[in-house]
Design brief:
InterPro entries: IBR_dom, LUBAC_E3_Ligases, TRIAD_supradom, Znf-CCCH_4, Znf_C3HC4_RING-type, Znf_CCCH, Znf_CCCH_sf, Znf_RING. By secondary structure, the protein is of the alpha+beta class. It contains 19 helices and 41 strands. The protein is flat, with a radius of gyration of 36 Å.
């Protein structure tokens, strides 16, 4: 478990005194001999207006044994660290807190050692459900789309007046008796509202379920069914603002404490420290009411400091803890708590009220002892429920019996999580630290979890009460983690030598070390991303531009035929690599496969001469060593990562391979002898978060485009909302109309056009003239529509085999015939049209 940060809480209201001790001073207390303590009927050396409050609930006050035995020194700042001189480092029992609120080392809080009262399962396993285009998308291994659920696919009911002892199994049987098979996973029993009845929420992925159940329940039955809005399935992921967590707090009982010192100097110093907040009790700021002297000159502790608003659970040790040993009081006397209540009852009441609003994924009771306010927290299973709970329960009164009522303060917490490679985090941490004070000013906190728990990556979490403030901090953090593209004026800095791990690459690594930055090569976009302090990144750009200009190498590309690819895969490329070194690389992602030579003309000719010997089969690589060769570049892997199928990749090759997109329904291991879908856990471990989320998004896009008869995108430009195509309803009827929740455009799910208020036939008649003109314009421009999904295609050059980017259909450009594979299309072109090109055939 990881320790979560503690957000600020509203200050507790002052507790007014309810009773007074006798005005007469206690002569035994003045001599330091009073044995009655707080039960004494006489004043212990203080004026009447400074006496402790009496208990409003006459119960036995909390004893020192109730306070627990935990070490609370971490709540106090180390004064040696504050002055820059603590020699104990992380072993110091006191807090090493910087001025900006971060722990030792910067503003981002490294969470390595959980505390018992701050354990929270924040990094729960990813459920691999993402919200994309208004749909809840379930992904499986290989980033394959397993299921797409839309809001319209669900319906829900609330069943009321159930017996108070009802459970999920009982509700499921009740529904079964009515003819509805519902899993207990889809049923949530609400806490009993009274002693005889309770309710249950049921959500089913069936749009007609709620209406059918409502009709099936007899109106005369005691059990009632209400149709309610069906929430979408829970979804997770990084770099999105979510609202699932609530923080709940209410007043704890307080007490007054008297400190007796031998000298006025000691008493004055303690008063000043408590008044300024330098000294705290149980991490709570208390009030100090000045120094008072005893009128009895014989009193060995004549100087008294009275503290109010002290947590009732505080012990004498808690009072003494912030005071240096040489300045501690000779005597500490604890007053009675202002009231007493059962903490277990309070926790149960709050949790029960939350469960009435939504299912809890996690809950932490308020601790028995602590600061001025009891603090509990929970996380709801579904998105957005926390804000509803805060709106309805903030200010609710906890009825704790015997006339005691406490106000519940509830805050909905917005959060966003990020995942970043450790080498990137190290160089951007100083940049993040600069932002932390401004985030803290808006009550937004950043936590950085221990890298050892996240497979070489850092998980960062932003949390705050304001959705706007968290969103602003998220945007700033995203910008830092995205880095900046290296530019030379208006030109992107790039040279082919950057793409290979040769001498120029080694110079990039030296530059990283010297400047304290990270340089990431984006081979797909031919650019460099710089991460680190802005001034260092600015310093690096002219150096990179100079390095690119000094490079005289040229990129030569050699496309491989099937037999050449087999030769290269079986060891021929290794022979070429031994002859040319890092100048030669293999691109197994492209179609066709390629060998890229980054060097001189002589290097290029040598590579061609070696390819001419493909009739000589190289020595095959032994199976036992197969996993030691990267299946992308066919060389020993650099910065290796190993997948669960035991194949080892270069880190750069793996990222490039995954970013190239899906060529089938899932991402398979690149090894020709494997073709196993890459597990999602492996993709998460080895890919940056933006790359992983883009891979999932691209997989979903491909999934939707390959199913034009089932799903379509909203017709508004730049709107990515998805709707389900209707196949059975009456064309033009109201049931066929989809109103996009993002752009509010209404689309007919039957004909996929917008015609509110008219049938499909009426709309077709109106638009026919416009369509004719559009088709004529397309004909003049040489634009044709995909015969399968109607995506418009323009062919500029090349052969007459075209692949639709929408549905991946293989199309003959001459006759618009579609085929299941490129080979089928090529065979058709040769037989029906005399070849794959127009040239030479009079076409």
């Amino acid at each position: 478990m990881d320790r979560a940060i503690t957000l600020p809480w509203r200050p507790a209201a002052a507790q007014a005194p309810k009773g007074w001790q006798a005005n007469a001073p206690c002569k035994f207390f003045a001599q330091g001999k009073c044995r009655n303590g707080q039960a004494c009927s006489f004043s212990h050396g203080v004026a009447p207006e400074s006496c402790p409050p009496a208990s409003t609930v006459q119960e036995t006050p909390a004893t020192s044994a109730d306070a627990g035995e935990g070490d609370t020194r971490k709540q106090v700042q180390c004064r040696f660290y504050a002055s820059g001189g603590c020699l104990k480092g992380v072993s110091c029992p006191f807090a090493h807190v910087d001025a900006d609120g971060g722990v030792e080392g910067g503003g981002a809080r490294d969470v390595d050692t959980p505390e018992m009262d701050e354990i929270e399962p924040e990094d729960t396993p990813d459920d691999w459900i993402r919200e994309i285009g208004g749909a809840a998308v379930q992904f499986g291994d290989g980033a394959a789309v397993l299921k797409v659920s839309l809001q319209s696919d669900f319906s829900a009911v609330r069943i009321r007046m159930l017996p108070s002892n009802s459970d999920q199994a009982g509700v499921s049987k009740f529904l079964c008796d009515l003819g509805f098979e519902v899993s207990t996973d889809n049923i949530r029993v609400l806490p009993a509202g009274d002693q005889t009845h309770c309710a249950a929420d049921v959500r089913v992925e069936d749009p007609s379920f709620a209406k059918r159940l409502f009709d099936a329940v007899d109106t005369k039955s005691a059990i009632k069914v209400d149709i309610v809005n069906a929430p979408m399935p829970n979804r997770s992921g990084f770099q999105r603002v979510e609202c699932k967590k609530v923080y709940c707090s209410w007043h704890r009982p307080l007490r007054t404490v008297w400190l007796n010192f031998k000298t006025k100097k000691e008493a004055s110093a303690a008063h000043s420290a408590f008044s300024s907040g330098s000294y705290k009790v149980c991490d709570a700021t208390v009030k100090s009411h000045g120094v008072k002297g005893s009128p009895n000159a014989m009193n060995p502790q004549p100087w008294t400091v009275m503290l109010t608003e002290v947590p009732a659970g505080a012990t004498k040790d808690d009072i003494n803890q912030p005071i240096p040993p040489r300045m501690r009081p000779a005597h500490v006397e604890l007053g009675k708590p202002s009231f007493v209540y059962d903490m277990a009852t309070a926790n149960a009441l709050v949790k029960s009220k939350l469960m009435e609003i939504g299912a809890l994924d996690w809950w932490e009771d308020a601790a028995k002892n602590g600061g001025k306010r009891a603090k509990a927290r929970g996380r709801f299973r579904d998105e957005g429920v926390a804000s509803k709970a805060a709106a309805s329960l903030n200010g609710w009164t906890l009825p704790l019996g015997r006339g005691l009522k406490l106000r519940l303060d509830m805050q909905a917490i917005y959060s966003a999580r990020f995942r970043v490679a450790e080498r990137i985090f190290k160089v951007v941490k100083p940049v993040i630290d600069v932002q932390v004070p401004s985030w803290l000013a808006k009550h937004v906190f950043l936590t950085a979890y221990d890298v050892s728990r996240t497979n070489g990556h850092r998980v960062l979490r932003l949390e705050g009460e304001s959705q706007v403030a968290v969103a602003e901090a998220k945007g700033a953090l995203e910008k830092i983690l995205a880095g900046e593209v290296a530019m030379d004026g208006t030109e992107t800095i790039w040279t082919p030598a950057f793409a290979v791990n040769g001498g120029v690459f080694l110079k990039l690594k030296q530059m990283e070390e010297t400047l304290g930055i990270a340089i990431v090569r984006n081979k797909r976009r031919s650019c460099l991303h710089l991460f680190g302090p802005p001034e260092k990144c600015k310093e690096a750009q002219p150096l990179l531009a100079k390095l690119a200009k000094e490079d005289t190498s040229t990129t030569h590309t050699i496309d491989l035929f099937d037999d050449q690819f087999t030769w290269a895969r079986l060891g021929g490329f290794n022979e070429m690599r031994q002859a040319l070194g890092r100048k030669v690389t293999f691109d197994s992602i492209s179609t066709p496969k390629r060998i890229i030579v980054t060097g001189s003309e002589k290097d290029y000719l040598l590579a061609l001469s070696m390819l001419a010997t493909t009739t000589t089969t190289p020595t095959p690589t032994p199976d036992t060593a197969a996993t030691l060769i990267c299946p992308i570049c066919f060389t020993p892997p650099e910065d290796p990562i190993t997948t669960p199928c035991t194949h080892t990749y270069c880190t750069d090759c793996f990222e490039h391979f995954c970013s190239a997109g899906l060529t089938s329904t899932s991402l398979l291991c690149a090894s020709s002898s494997c073709n196993t879908p890459l597990p999602l856990s492996s993709l998460q471990s080895h890919l940056p978060t933006p790359a992983l989320e883009k891979l999932l998004s691209d997989s979903f896009t491909s999934y939707i485009r390959q199913r034009p008869s089932t799903f379509r995108y909203c017709g508004t430009p730049d709107c990515n909302q998805v709707y389900r195509v209707s196949s059975s309803a009456t064309p033009g009827s109201e049931a066929d109309m989809f109103t996009c929740p993002r752009c509010l455009t209404t689309v007919c799910t039957k004909c996929r056009d917008s015609h509110p208020g008219m049938t499909c036939a009426e709309h077709a008649d109106i638009k026919s003239g416009g369509y004719a003109a559009l088709e004529e314009t397309k004909r003049k421009l040489g634009i044709k529509d995909c015969p399968r999904c109607k995506t418009s295609i323009e062919k500029i050059d090349g052969c007459n085999h075209v692949t639709c980017l929408g549905c991946q259909a293989h199309i003959c450009w001459k006759c618009l015939g579609t085929f299941g594979s490129s080979r089928g299309c090529y065979d058709h072109l040769s037989l029906a049209h005399g070849g794959v090109f127009d040239r030479g055939y009079g076409m």
